[in-house]
Design brief:
This protein is 83% helix and 0% strand. The chain has 95 residues and is mostly helical. The longest helix is centred in the middle third of the chain and has 25 residues.
Length: 95
């Protein structure tokens, strides 16, 4: 029963699908988000943590979406696949 509830949770599935990207980018995005919240005057610890968590995950998922749309995802997160694909492009074109 518990596994069914967790398997159908869209937020957990989203975080699981993008866990590598969240792990790699969270420090950079979280630093910017934390500084922005302090600049806006939000200094309550609990509120800062909750907003920071939500903003960080949201920005990383949006960033990954645009990176995939612009075909930049493989360059940053899967460079081996990018190099294999680019090598095949050069061979296919006879260059």
């Amino acid at each position: 029963m518990e596994h069914e509830v967790l398997a159908n949770n869209r937020l957990l599935n989203l975080c699981g699908r993008h866990s590598m990207e969240i792990y790699v980018l969270h420090a950079f995005v979280q630093l910017l988000s934390r500084e922005t919240l302090v600049f806006l005057g939000i200094t309550n610890f609990c509120l800062n943590i909750l907003i920071n968590l939500a903003v960080t995950i949201f920005l990383i998922v949006v960033c990954v979406f645009f990176m995939k749309m612009l075909h930049l995802y493989n360059i940053f997160f899967k460079p081996v696949f990018f190099l294999k694909d680019s090598k095949n492009l050069w061979v296919d074109k006879g260059l």
